[in-house]
Fold each of these.
Amino acid sequence: MSGTHIFQSSIDSKLITVSVMNRKSNLEHAHRDIELIYMIKGQLQVKITNNTYHLNKSDFILINSNEFHSFQSEKDNLFIVFHINYLELSSLIGQKNLLFTCNSNEQSHSSDQELRNVIEELLSVYMQQRNDSEVEALEKTFKLISLLKLHYLKSTNQLELQNHSTNKGQNERLSEIMEYIQSNYREALTLEEVAGLHFISVPYLSKFFKKQTGKTFSQYINEIRLAHAVNELVNTGKPITRIALDNGFPNLAAFNRVFNESYQLKPVEYRKQMSDTTEKEERITEEISNPDSDEAFTELQQYLKSSVEQKVQTLPATTEIIETETIKIGKLDAFTKYWNKLLNIGYAKDILNSDMQEQITLLQDEIGFTYARFWGLFGDDMLVEDRSGGKITYNFSNTNKLLDFLIKNKLKPFIEIGPKPKIIQKAIGETIAVQTISERSQEEWKHLFRAFLLQCIQRYGIDEVETWYFELWKPHTDVFNAGLQDEKDFLDQVKNNNQDVGLSQFKEYFKIFSEFKKHTKELIPSAKVGGCGLSMDLEGDKLDLLLEQWKQEEYQPDFLSIYLYPIEIHREKYRVPIKNLHSNNPDYVINKLNEVRKALKKAGFDSLELNVTEWNISISNRNFLNDSSFKASYMIKNIIENLNQNHVNMMGYWLFSDIFSDFWDSKTLLHGGAGLVTKTGIKKPSYHAYMLLKQLGEILVAKGDHYIVTKRSGHRYQVICFNYKHFNYSYYLHPEGSMGIHEQYEIFENNEKLNLSLEIQGLANGKYRIKELKLNRDHGSVLDEWLKFGAVDDMKLDEVDYLKQICVPDMKVEHHVVENESMVLKGELQPHEVRLFEFNLLISDL
């Protein structure tokens, strides 16, 4: 007797269905769903198209959409069948054509064991059958899908390359015809209709089809209809006549004839063999309420229990055994520190605030940036225009105060020009405050800007002004700063903004940019003029088209500026509810930069300067992750990972101070602002990340997944290690910023410590002084210290001063003698911890 137990979560029933089967066989069939089979025990023979696979314990195989397949159980076995909704999955992944290569029989993949673990985690959640397990089930489902996408899905580019192989024309035509049949097999298709739609004659199509497939047109379409009908015959309780008509057969007699020719029995007899579907569903409903009565269900429970026990037994008895990674000091490469060239200091009027200036001075004294980027220089509140008397005159008193302050603090202006508003974002689509700038005609902008440049040259000298950067804002690319009121409007705008890709989108910008650059170069020939602040539009054709058209313009940019926030939008359909738009890709930043650099090369901008003028984990100014130690490890990871990659000239952190986002709802000490320092001047982990990076030398010795080793002149070395943790899948089920202040460390993939051991070989023998700084939840995290303080919202001045003093990394110094030209650095890093080792030779043995 065969058994089948089907169960699904109410949340993700549209996305995935899980069936537990023992001693089950099935005729060849097909369906739109993607099917994943996982063996628990015994053997199963699976046939897909013309290939047969023998699955044993822990084997898995994925059957793509509409592939003919069957399976045969010869002996006692137990296996799981996952059906994943093709349309939902396509929408979730953001790719139209899905083709997976996932077969543990055929090839070994480094992620195979991880996939097995996730499958068993998902099964364990399903087995619980609790009302409160739905979110956990969805989390595991998304984890499974993410693994399939990252490691087993063929990309669009791979599919295109495959389609452009040999016999390109014939393959494309055959693919189009077969795809049309697959999509329309339920209709009364004829050879004449298909030939007419593809502009070929009926005789030609008949011969062509038989030659390419080995089957006649009618044989092929009947196979497809039969495969889908068999699926419904087994898995639904629909009447057989309805199944026949729904799958393209003209009547029941035709269905019976084709079925009997293929399987030597009638559909009604086959259904009876497989047991009547209606009875089966009633039995399953009863068994869910009493799981112990179902043999397959009980077997699976026992398997999962033993599997967990086995994993516990195989865990290492101690974590003290650490594999040491060896770093040999050999050929050394110099590198440029690109991360501390640029800092975003915000909206021009805010920078005249004495508190802001005090914090900028502190930052510049301790860290030291080269450029300060700001916008709103010609905002209404800067009072640069006097329109009384019918004639426009200019007053640059406030602009000069701002520029005087920056130059005094050895900061060169990086000015973003244009009517960009000041917006405080709670999250995507949720705006707290908007401060707009009045629009001007192009002529008014030209006169204002020329007057501004002339007075700057007169005030600061052309040698100084020629070192400045001027960036022209391109409004319609900045879709997440559009002042939208809710997520639906935001998604709709992004979708519409990316549907119509054409020259008309860029013409107006190119026209304004040309005027802007022409007048700038006339007055200040060596100044850098660029744009355009690309953000959500970094996808494929749109970026290629923009750069291709810009290359043809008379006035081309001196640099391309882009924004990097790890936000991903599903541009096709929004079938699956999106709660959190953060990318689940931990390598989002480097991947995006790779895409941009490739697009620049393709457009002929190989050597164009690339500046990331804004980057952060989020655009939100109300996300406590900004205050946590996670933020430091996120910054360190991405900065080190991108070192010497993609020729990035500068990377400007967004934003320098929480004062920027101080508003009516920010009365507490912390409010999730994106600043490096709080509004009261307490240094955050992100601030300390820059302080640790400042200690790195100018010569790269080595870097790895969790560390970087650098050197200064003489025998002075620096090592930064970090234990970065990415978000877990439950994080994406909640709106951004909705996690409470006490829940900020419950949203990561794991809380495992990192045991790091680095042996550095090739050192000079002698006595070294080693300084070690730890930045983690216990040392240097304002969020954790505030939580210990009770997270009170009525902080007194002395209490703020106390937090300023204790929110610093832990520091210790020791001495070590190197005798064999080798030193081993060891450390157990907490989750999100960043650690710096500095060791200098004091006394040489020579």
Amino acid sequence: MLPLKHLVIILLLLSPGLVLAQSKKTFTISGTIKDKASGETLPAATVSFVELPGKGVTSNSYGFYAISIPEGSYTMLTTYTGYTTDTLKILLTKNMLINKSLASASGQLQEVKIKSSTARSNNILTTPAGVQRLNIKDINNVPVLLGEKDVLKTIQLLPGIVSAGDGNAGFFVRGGAADQNLILLDEATVYNPSHFLGFFSVFNSDAIKDISIYKGGMPANYGGRLSSVEDIQMNDGNNQKFGASGGIGLIASRLTVDGPLFNNKGSFIISARRSYVDLFTGFASDTTTKHSKIYFYDVNLKGNYQLDSINRIFLSGYFGKDVMSFRNSYGLDYGNSTGTLRWNHIFSSKLFSNTSLIYSNYTYDVNIDDNTDNIKVSSAITDYHFKQDFTYYLNASNKLGFGLESTYHITQPGTAVATASSSYNDVFLEKKYALESALYLSDEWNASDKLKITYGVRLSDLSVLGPGNFYTYDKDGNKTDSTYYKSGKIVKSYITPEPRFAASYQLNPTSSVKLSYDRNVQNIHLLNNSAYLSTTNVYLPSSNNIKPEIADQVALGYYHTFHNNGFEFSSEIYYKNLQNQIDYKNGADLVGNPNIEADLLYGSGRAYGWETYIKKKSGKFTGWISYTLSKTELKIPGINNGDYYPATQDQTNHISLVGMYQATKKWTFSADFVYNTGDAVTWPSGKFSVDGAPVYYYGARNSNRLPAYNRLDIGATLLAKKTTKYESSWTFSIYNLYGQSNPYDIIFQADPNNANKTQVQQTTLFKMVPSVTYNFKF
């Protein structure tokens, strides 16, 4: 692997902004920006100076900032969307430590940001193309299923991000599959972000402080997925006073408690949620329902402590599980566990360090009991992750980011254990081991008042490790060789450079154009015959047969604000070139298959599209309209004669309309409408009979379409009471107001009254679902 010092030298040579001599003596201003009421740090807050247009800096994920400017008198502005701008006159004659506490502008919940911005024109001044903005107030007001506000469901109303459908928390970003999104919670990977098989996401919005979403122009510190990054941070907890909030809904309730620790040197937060359908099934008259269990829970925990002025530690964790059992004959439980230990250290006024030890685990178990056979099927993936990040504020024009990370992956593709009386034999698929590492280096360069550039490189390495048997196959999937490798022995290594570049040029105070290019590599592959995230999917790392997936994306966009920044508009086009894409042979069996790699096919692909977005940000009526026109195609030898064919997640058109109206101080009304083209599917093109039983044969892969999806939701929030010590509200909503029968599944089967005829049966999950939730905070 290329040494980090060589990457530093390359970056220095590429950036003329790093070597410009200063004509005056410079000094550094640094500090931390926090919420005045709670003490929560504010990531991506902006520090700028009236006398230095175009020169400014944003705080990092922990609220720390630093900027070096020439000595002199300045008016320092500290801004964060939704907060009052802080103005300070300073005389800079030495290095200065200036910590800032900002007050909320409206007393409402703070914004959940999706990238750095300023109070003037967020979408004009941010560098990367492919970045959207959303705030927690929007999430609270958007109607959702059964009243559970949901970050992942809400972002699917944005351009380029498409829902995988009812009953699924998976989503597709710019034509990528559901597993090509890197979802992080306090830096820990969350592999299955869903409860109730996708009806809800695992993220309790009460515990979330910040979410950053990248569809393109990914910074070099992120890697491992092809399509997007959703970087979610939990709240640190209020270090000023104790408080509690929560809600009671039709299907689940939640409670959050936070407060100060150690004389306000630290804080904690505990946020828990549980559904309670199982509390009522015991009263059912139907025996199947009576003896069934269906529930989920999740718990978010976090604490932090300020050791001294330059050291702070954080410990956070997430624990969530779903349990479903039906009449003691079939049971399913699955869940995620994560843990993150972080140490922030300020080496100097210019150099900030974050060191993290991270644990992530996803498991599922299926129990089948038919009185004769009792079988338990299990699968899991576990990560042990070390990450070291540095931020160096070189001067007013350059902010360097560099670091390294390494993740040890252990995947268990599957086990099946049967009781002694069962007619089935036990199956134990070999565990797979891999070490994934990366070095990265990037520079955020304010080249001029109008031109901002972010560029860098990430160098990733995936080493396939023993112990285990490793096979090679011919083109027909037959074994040609077998080799056993001892524990820790390197079987295969893949080293891939990932260059990143993003530029923004401000045409005038209200308009800009942006260009980005990024290469992303994915080494953890989800093997799945459908486009959706499922509890029983098989995860495998790259191997001697499976190469890393690679995506090269170019995006170009135009951004504009108007009506005194009350509206923002963006229009963007993108193109992705995809390498080493994976699909499956006809009839491939992915569950419990010891030679699963023999059923895989490999090829290339492409994804391209146009996204447009307009948002009204101020006034009693707010909302947005987004439209995406896109195409995703694969070209894999062995499928459709080697011609391009639609990927399963290909959706040509996607439209979202979201509106929120503040009618009075107490009442807020909202509605959203979504429409998208149906997914590509393969349906039978004919059938024949074998011993009286129908056998279907199929035509070209993904040559058919599910019916188009559309839905209208409405909601209303009543602020029942608000004092300095207590607040309560009621949220009412109707999901799928006009009862559209959107397809969850379509199957073909023989007509029970006439075996010569074929029935087409569609399953629809939700026709119309009303809900009410009581929320409180004190």
Amino acid sequence: MKKAPGDEPNEALTVTPPKKWAAGVPAVVHALEYSLEETSPRRTGETLLTMNQVDGIDCPGCAWADPSPGHRHRNEYCENGAKHINDEATTRRINADFFRKYTVSELGRRSDAWLNQQGRLTEPMVKRPGSDSYEPISWNDAFGLLASELKSLESPDEAVFYTSGRASNEAAFALQLFARALGTNNLPDCSNMCHESSGYALHETLGTGKGTVSLDDLHNADLIFLVGQNPGSNHPRQLSALEQAKLNGARVIAVNPLPEAGLLRFKNPQNARGVIGHGIQIADRFLHIRNGGDLALFQGINRLLLEAEDARPGEVLAHDFIRSDTKGFEEFAEHARGIDWDDILTATGLTREEVEQVRDEVLRSDRVIVCWAMGITQHKHAVPTIREIVNFLLLRGNVGRAGTGACPVRGHSNVQGDRTMGIWEQMPDDFLDALQAEFGFDPPRPHGLDSVNSIKAMREGRIKFFLALAGNFVRAAPDSEITEEAMRNCRLTAQISTKLNRSHTVCGETALILPTLGRTERDIQADGEQFVTVENSMSEVHTSRGRLQPGSSLLLSEVAILCRLARRTLDGTADIPWEQFEADYGAIRDRISRIVPGLHDFNRRVTRPGSIQLPNPVNEGVYHNAVGKALFTANAWEMLHAPEGHLLLQTLRSHDQWNTVPYTSNDRYRGIRGSRRVVLVNPQDVAELGLAEGQHVDLISVWSDQVERRAEDFRVVPYPTTKGCAAAYYPETNVLVPLESVADKSNQPTSKGIVVRLEPATPRRDAAQG
């Protein structure tokens, strides 16, 4: 049973063997239990029965695509989506009395779970300079305070505007328009920390930053790779798509340091096979790979495919496609043939026989898809790894055809839409030119700051103003102590939020809480009830319409907050109809339709059942990269190495967690209950390091700057992770990720490849560690 809002979690750690299947009846039970603890049966029914339906509420939990209209289940949601939507729909409320009871310092000592459990924010609040408490402020005064601070900056580049994937397309477009009209490209977003590496690699090789597959492609593939992802917890509805693919005859290869339950077997609670039967096996082959060994794996597969072509000329590779649509094959092939097998096997921890078995699976398959997530993108060599995956797909023509392609699986509901709408510090000139033509001002051209560089600039005093549109920047970012120091350096920080989180307690000299409508709530503006749009992982744009009454009469929508701030700050210096945008979001979509390719006639097309499929040039044989063709690349790499007595740590989410917010201290599929401060270690490593099951240890990361980064008081849990590797939950372990430890080219934090040592610790009973 979940603790009452006033209590911190205080359960004893219990560990049971990890589950070997995901979902089933327990998923339904847990979803309903959590939902009914948050809100009423009526509201639970209203949210769940409209969730992911045509003209309903889009799930805020992840970005997985919906089946086409007429093919959706009446209960088109997963356990985690049900928890998340009703976590937002909670009937618990935070008002001024709450902030009179708790100072900012006291809130800062509370756990992430406790902060989230307090309920919905209901009125704007301000922390004044020198104060340790929030107090009420009117919306008019809040906008005045924000506008005054922005106008006082010596340069617009002293401001940073951060966006989370929770924002709608309309809000994201309004934010980037405001920032650029103000004069800055400082537009970091959560993609900087999750899939930036995918964008860089795919742009370079295929000319697009997005995936190239649809749900139909997944259903009709012969072979699907799931690499560095855990769909059972992070995007569970993908399991339904994989189930359909399996029923259609597909085979699945899972590549992961941990044998995640959802990769093994799926019991779909929406059919009899999942309720009373054994479900369906997902992974036909599981590669228990070493952290960061994925690049070496695909280089080994590619070398074997080249050698298979040597043995059977003309029968293995897609020669016509390679000649017509690609460039760089010869250089790639020469490099691939020179890869040393000892290096491949050491980096992956696999045997050559295991890699050869994968090659055989590939040779038997005409249509192949590779899916990946943050287990790939959060490594130093993430960009070359994804380029090597593209090499693999190109060799046998597995792009641009039905049932084939590259599938980066986004973990946040509209993070891809944010980028489409212009939330990027490096938007190309054609987008900026379109903004100029539409609105009559010249947007700034120099690249702005991403998330990591924003932290550096705040720490150095170069950023005075920080505004976050949703999200929990402090807990999403690496190097927690440095990030918090950086935020406290700002003159003003403001959070547009639905619920309380750590970022409200780590703030600038002046801090504002700007409470906003949730996606579940009806949005009534001057021209009537509004809907918003979002884009999923498969480049489909569709509507989301709230159903519940707002949690407070003082809540404003994200769009309204941004439009009113822009009006107060810009004083009409750009010809942008902010008042019209606030009154009618269709006016925003009209402008988007003339700026974003593929969204022409946006307002009419998006209201039809289904979604708008944005164009993907790759599927038309068009590659908008530097060479105008799909690019083979030669990818050098440096093997991740942990010195003797050290381990390679990856951070990960628990099952009962959404992004940075833990709902409970449990991780049902991994057999963990009662604590999040655990480190999962291979049993052989536990013995060799002289540790014991349940022992209290500190995790200390090893980095070249010699700064000690320590995560205190974790319990050792023997677990079937790859030998030499370990895993622990974020955000508790973000403190271990050095700010300077980033992926080459993409500047994305390397949260999946941290060298750590484990030292005995004295148990702590600090409530904030719950």
Amino acid sequence: MEGQTCKQKCGVVLEKCSCHTTCAYLLDCCGDYKQFCLRVSPYSGSMLGGSTFTILNLVFAPGERVICRFKGSKEIEGFVDPEGRAHCVLPLLHETGFIPFEVSTDGVKFDRSGEYLSVHPSELDPALKVTLVNKTQWQHYSTPHRAGPHRVWSHRAGPLTMTWNSSLIRSDRVDIELWGYREVSGRTASEGNNSASLQAEWSYLYSLGRDLPNTGAFSFIPKPSVKPHSNWEAGSIRVKASSSSEGARDVQGLWSEAHALAWHLEQAFRNTFTDWAENKCLAWDDLEKTLPKLLDEIADCPCTLAQARADTGRFHTDSGCDTQGGSMCTFHPGTIRCVRSIQTSPRRGSGQQCCYDGTGAQVLTRDLTSGSTPELKTGVPLRMDIPPRIPGLSHRLTDVMSFYYCCLWSDNCHVYFRHRSSSGCKTYRPPRAGAVLGDPHFITFDDLHYTFSGEGEYYLVSSPDKELSVQVRTQRGKPENDTLAQATRLSSVAMKQKASDVIEVRLPDDRDQLQVLRNQKVLSFSEQRWMDLHGVSVFSASPQNVTIMFASGVGVEVRRRESAMAVTVLLPTELINNTKGLLGQMNSDPTDDLMTSQGEVINVATTTAEEIFTFGTSWNISKETSLFTYDSKYLFDTYYYPPKHDTTFIPAFSLPETPDDPLVADMLKMCYGNGAQFCKYDTLTSRSLAQGNATLRAYQSHEALMQDLEQVVSCGWLPTPRNGKKNGTSYLEGTVLDFSCNEGFKLYGSSQRTCLEDGTWTGVQPHCLKVHSLSITKTPARYRHGHT
């Protein structure tokens, strides 16, 4: 549908109208928009394919042919049910995010289109997957474990069981299939003539059962596989209707989680799994030696758990290790939480897994094998691999299986950590944070505080060099008496970097929760809390909280605070001296933060509220640069055509705290300490103690964030002397480590070392030498002169 159609029907001049951009506020009156732009349910499914969706807003003739074409090329035959609803199956995809699709009834004219959200298998609702009952037994079949009331060692054996929601398979009879994933050698010019590239293979191996009743459960006793099947060591189980052919691709089905196929491996694994695994480990070791060093291409971990939690633009919680979230950290005993990097290295898609103990200190694998582990192929698919791989399966094959070979199935963990040792945090630099909260008050990246209450749309952050734009919309609030306030509040924030999707978060007047839009279309989080989109990821833990993460490491946190929004922007240090706008220039100099868009700097020491107002108005956006959505008559009339700053509105720069005002006494009890002025202003302008308290809490949250993001000095790891002891595993400024030797050994070097503020250790590295082997009683010269 073109814009002209909407013009004819609605009589409004439009510049563009299509299925992927809103027709201003015209969706309700432009009927053919809904006819050609499809809505589906469910709207998300696994990138492995097999999920079926129903087209909701179009009725077909029963039995009519339907073809769905994904990404302009992959055509899948759909079907129409007796009620005239069309259904299509998602094919295998090598990416996450919204996938465009088109629908045709003749295979020639694809004139209806929509989008479907492809999600990482780990993010899929467990109810939509095949459940491997006792997953540990599946992944470690035939290996020993302690079992029974007396904790006797035995080998994992016996039947394996899986379950699934039988109603999700439209058939009375099903097949149970094993699919394998591997990456075989190839070469690409982009990786150089001498660098091997791995081509992904995702293949049907064999059936565990054919034409079985669809009861939702299946058990079997696995038999060892033979070559060539036994060469596949990682994969998934699929349950599909028996009516489709064996191993058919792109048909309706449910997948299990990817796992190590220990139960399927050859008889040699069952006979002597330690020898088998050791050979695999050593072969992996030989391969790793030919690859570039992993730590050379990834960023360091945050030094503390507080930093890791706060740096939401670059790290997110690892669901496999989060004791507060219910995960037991099975492979990271001694830690309470791990985080994974959102950014991946540009060359190989590598990333970090950073783990922390109960004190908040980073755990290093050189102290405990359960510590932080870099990943050659991270499971976070913010970038596409070329040639395409399946991110979660690639990570399991490359990083997890090698851990099984070396650490779980054989005693060669030292080999594994030769290539996957923790990188520490000496070079980690926390992001810088700026915020806007309340009615509205701004805290710049250089910690300048001010209030600007203009009405319009403005640049919060602009960085042309880094192609980053974060814009805010403000509108007048309505106090309890329903009259317009003499102050404004944030009602929307929109952002984009480079060629990413445009993300907008807004708080409509008639809603008590945030609304998120992608490219002017509302996103629903009813099925997914995490969405990997184009160049950006969005996470919504609750309807009142949204976090946006760009591929560059820029993060934006949006929180609902009563009737206002609070926005925090986190910028990596690469943007130092590259920002302007209402959050100022990020250069550690607050005196130039009040620079207008024309380059004039207002003196922060002598400035007035009126001058700050003039500064703020200079950062209004233009119609051509706007990232906002105008999908209601109010937004269209108020913000689209008029100037982006309302010059007729002058806010109350200050309000009197009159003793006869019944609100003042309670306000003075509530608003105290840092942030008190913001709290008082918002209480008086909104005539609401709740709003004033919300502003104070938002300010306190920002203060806490700034404390968490403070730079921490690390002096780097110190080894425990051979035949000796070390009394701690923290290596941050102020740490004092004591060293001692085992009985029969004498310590040479420093028995105590302290981490200094310049990032160096006092003393020299201690060594423990056998007492009876010493031929001298004096300290060797190399220790007297400070050599290690």
